[in-house]
Design a protein that fits this description.
Radius of gyration: 21 Å
Distance between the termini: 49 Å
Helix content: 25-40%
Largest sheet: 8 strands, mixed
Shape: elongated
């Protein structure tokens, strides 16, 4: 990545973290994270137990940020431990270390200036973290003592979710459309990250584990005011997502998968056969029941699938 002298280390960190989540799931205990990763013959750490903002010795800007869930019901220290996500903007709020001149804060500012991607280790329970990456520092709010982090937008992976909100000449032509598009992109980045994590970064239909080919698919679409909630999402490969959006496949409220009749009738190679083979199978849902698809959302989407077949 141009302008980031730490890019080779970041890339290695992302690859190593990918392998950890494939092996251990989307929620990692600290004992797994603290082992770090190999980079150019050296052991490099992902994060620090003591520090929220972390820069490895061989880097010049921050690699990761971390929030924790206090043990034993203890009170929180930072605001981001209680809220952390702003649904109105689709951004994560992360508190800077107290004191403007703290070196760790400057390491985070360096990352912002370079548009360098970071890892966000988000505490989900005491000693357990959900890694979300890549994220970027969109705003460095020194007076407020915080930064705003944006997750990658799966629809446009070269930009962050909030970057769509930046003014451009194109927005003058149709401001209302641009604003709606920004709102969907911001929430899509959050929604997609959370949905993929809930499904342990595997396609709920094919079990494909390749993160670069996975998306968080809305059950009730954005355009129909489907909420950016994990219960309105299914982790799918890009192929299955396209088929789902085209009503070539549907999922009923009992999680049974249906393939459109005209797709079943086609004969055109192993890829199509794999899609046809989904007919009658069941969606693989997250281990956490609170992340399961909402039956009412499934019923609404399945009704649209049936209507498209007529």
């Amino acid at each position: 990545m141009n302008g980031d002298p730490d890019w080779s280390v970041r890339a290695q960190a992302f690859e190593a973290l990918e392998q950890l989540t494939l092996a251990h799931g989307s929620r990692l205990p600290w004992s797994t994270i603290q082992a770090g990763f190999e980079c150019h013959g050296e052991r490099v750490f992902f994060a620090s137990r003591a520090l929220g903002i972390f820069k490895p010795k061989r880097m010049t800007a921050a690699l990761s940020v971390k929030t924790v869930v206090p043990r034993g019901g203890r009170s929180t220290t930072y605001r981001d431990q209680e809220t952390g996500f702003d649904r109105s903007t689709g951004l994560f709020s992360y508190d800077l270390e107290a004191g403007r001149d703290k070196p760790a804060n400057e390491f985070l500012r360096h990352a912002k200036d370079r548009r360098a991607p970071l890892i966000y280790f988000r505490g989900v329970e005491a000693g357990v973290y959900e890694p979300i990456w890549p994220v970027w520092v969109e705003q460095y709010q020194e007076v407020e003592g915080r930064v705003l982090l944006a997750a990658a937008d799966t629809a446009q992976p070269d930009i962050s979710s909030a970057e769509a909100a930046l003014p451009s000449a194109n927005e003058v032509r149709d401001a209302s459309y641009s604003l709606a598009l920004v709102r969907r992109r911001n929430h899509q980045a959050w929604f997609s990250s959370r949905t993929k994590a809930a499904y342990d970064y595997r396609c709920a239909l094919s079990r494909l584990p390749l993160r670069s080919l996975l998306v968080g698919a809305h059950i009730v679409p954005d355009a129909e005011d489907g909420p950016p909630s994990v219960n309105n999402g299914i982790c799918m490969s890009t192929l299955h997502h396209a088929a789902f959006d085209a009503y070539l496949i549907g999922v009923d409220p009992d999680l049974r998968v249906h393939v459109a009749d005209h797709v079943i009738a086609e004969r055109d190679g192993p890829l199509l056969a794999a899609l046809q083979g989904l007919n009658g199978t069941h969606l693989v849902v997250p281990a956490d029941p609170t992340a399961h698809p909402n039956r009412d959302y499934l019923d609404q989407r399945y009704s649209a699938f049936l209507a498209a077949r007529r």
